[in-house]
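Quiz preparation item.
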């Protein structure tokens, strides 16, 4: 009986540690996806705009996401193109985050077989 109690406490500690490690990997992964993804999207959109002759800054924290230094020189077509490109990049980041969560859940289910 005593050994059964020790065995169950060790097993519950192992399962708790296992869950905490998976939770931490999900949080760290999402953190890196958001921070590096934000930097990538910001620099990519600004670089594409610069190649098209438009000087702008990407500000994802505001309602006006793309700020143009000379808004009168930017055509409607260029604005729509850059906004669509920004939307597609942010949507891609969301999909990568969902894929990361799915990968971690799949890994947890796979490792659960061996425990």
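Solution:
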């Amino acid at each position: 009986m005593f050994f059964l109690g020790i065995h169950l406490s060790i097993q519950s500690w192992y399962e708790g540690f296992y869950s905490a490690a998976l939770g931490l990997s999900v949080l760290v992964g999402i953190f890196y996806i958001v921070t590096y993804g934000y930097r990538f999207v910001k620099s990519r959109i600004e670089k594409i705009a610069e190649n098209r002759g438009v000087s702008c800054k990407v500000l994802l924290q505001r309602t006006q996401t793309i700020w143009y230094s000379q808004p009168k020189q930017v055509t409607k077509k260029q604005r729509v193109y850059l906004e669509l490109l920004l939307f597609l990049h942010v949507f891609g980041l969301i999909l990568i985050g969902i894929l990361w969560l799915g990968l971690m859940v799949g890994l947890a289910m796979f490792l659960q077989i061996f425990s």
